Amino acid sequence: MTSPNRAPSSNFAIFVFLFALGMLIHKTQLWEGLSQPLPLATTALCVMLLFRPASARLLLLFAVATLLEATWYAPFYFLNHMVYVAFVCFGIVGAFVSIYWRERRVPSSVHELEAILFPLFRAGLYVMFAFVVLHKSNAGFFDSVVSCALDHFGKLTAQLPWIPSAESLRIEAALPLLAWLAEGSIAVLLFFKRSRQLALYLAFGFHYLMAINGYQGFSAFALSMYVPFMPVGLHKQVAAAYHVARARFHGATLLKTVLVLIALFTVAMTLGHATGRTYQMERVGRWWYLAASPLIFFAYAYLFSRRHPSNTWPAASVPGQVWQLALLVLFATQSFMPYLGLKTESSFSMFSNLRTEEGEWNHLFLPEWVKIGGFQDSLVLVTRADGMTLLRPWERDFIPELVAEGPTLITEFEFKRQISAHCRAGQAPITLSYTTASRTYELADACQDPELSSGNGWVLEKFLWFRPVMRQQQCIH
User: Fold this and answer.
1) How far apart are CA 327 and CA 350, in angstroms?
2) pLDDT score of 362
3) Phi, psi (5° rounding) for residue 441?
4) pLDDT in tens, 352-409
5) Which of 6, 18, 229, 364 is within CB 3.0–4.6 Å of 2 for a Cys-Cys bond?
6) What pLDDT, on the 0 to 100 scale, is given for residue 259?
C-alpha cells in the first residue's frame, strides 16, 4: 500500500485508500469518456491516492476535482452512489476550510482530519440507510409480484444456479420483509459497539451479493464507508502486517506487483472507455471487486481476531460544527426529494418500487400532501420518435429506447430535456408522436415547437432528474 516511511498514520488513511479503490472500480460503470479532461484527472488522482493515502494535499485536490467533475456532468453523474461521493468530498473540503479558518494553516496529514470527518461520515451513513429503508416502506416493495427484492433474488439465482429459487423455498411472500429488515438492521447494529462486528459481516455479504448481480458501483464504495466504525487502532495492525509482508515476500517485488496490477487496470479502463466498450469495462470492474473485496474482508477479519485489547471501537459522537450539520441536512433533503415532487433519481430510492407520481402514490405512511412540486405529475407517452441519434452516453438518451420497448411514461420535464438537447445538436427534423393526459400530438419536426425545443432551463436541468414510469409497476433503479 505504502512504503515504510509512509505507513498509514490513522484509520483515515485506510479510508482514503479504499475510497480511491472504490472510485476506480465505480468508474467502469460511468458514461463519460476518460478522454475528457476532468474524468482523466480524477482517475489519475485515484491512482496517486492508492500510493499516498496519507497525503492531505493530494486528498484535497482529488475532492475538488471530483466535485468539479460531478458539477460538469450533473445531473446524470449523480447516481445514488455518487451522491454519497459528493457528500464525502464536500466533507473533506469543509474540514480543510474549517482547519484553515481556525488555525490559518493547511493540514499536513490526513491524520488531522479523522476526528473531524469520521463522526460526520458515520452520521451520513445513518442518514443514507434511514432513507433506503424509508423508500422501501411502500406497497410495491412488499408486493410479492413486483417487489425488487424478488427481482434481485431471481437475478442472483440466475447467476448462481446452485441457489434454490424463491418459489422452491416458498419465501416469495416473506422475502421483501426479510430484505427490508436486513438493510435496516445494518445501521441499527452499527449503532451499538457490541454488534458492530456482526454489522460489518452482514454488510459485506449484502454488498457482495449485489455486486454479483452487476451493481458493483455502490458496493465498491462500501469498502470504505464502514471504516469510520472500525476499531481505532486498526491502522497500527495494518502497518505491522504490511511490514511483515514486505520482509517475508520481498518488499520490492510486492510493490512492483501492485504497481503493475493497478497500471493494467487503469490502462484497460481507459482503452475500454476510449473504444466505447462500456459493457466490457463493467465486467472488468465487477471482477476486480469480486476478487479484491474478499481479500480485504478476510484481512480485516484476521486482524480483528488478533487485535490488542486497547483497540476499542470508536466512541459514539455527533458532528458539532455548523457546516457539518448543514451538510447532513442537505444530504437528507436531497434524499427526501421524491416525496416533495422535485426529483426521483439520485435520492437513494433505487430498487425500492417507490411511486410518488400523481395518482400512483404508494408509500405506506407518508401522506401525499407533503408534495410541494408537480414535476413528476405531467407524464408523456411517446409512441414514435424518428430522427434522434445518440448524443453523448452521459446524457442518457432513452426516448427511442422506450418507444422500442413498449408503453412507458416519462415526465414532461425529461421529455423536454431530451428533445431540446437533440434540437440544439442540430438533429432536426425529429418526428414525434406522443400523448399527454389531455390530448395526442403529431409533430413532423419537434424542433419547430418553441416549447419543446427550449427545454426547462439550465438551472433546473442541472438539479432535477426523473426516472421513467412503468404503466405496470416493475423494479427499476
Assistant:
1) 22
2) 92
3) -120, 145
4) 999 998 888 999 999 999 999 889 888 888 888 887 776 665 555 667 777 766 667 8
5) 6
6) 67
